[in-house]
Specification:
The chain is mainly alpha-helical. Helix content is 64%, strand content 0%. The chain has a domain of 38 residues. The termini are far apart. This is DUF1127 domain-containing protein.
Length: 74
Amino acid sequence: MAQSAPATATHTSFGGILDRMTEGLTRGLTFLVENNPRYGQISAINGMSDAELSKRGTTRADLVRKVFSDRYYL
């Protein structure tokens, strides 16, 4: 019968610690962005076809400008 031990990564070098810190920061920032209400609005805009946008009489750029108008001068 073969036995195996679970593979565990031991990060003892500075590079390993830096990799874990970078990964954690990336996950944290991704979480913040994806849970921002603006992200949901942009996702909805991106889900629309060009035909749907033209039927509404607008463009993707106009809607993005509207979503971020209180934050950025676009």
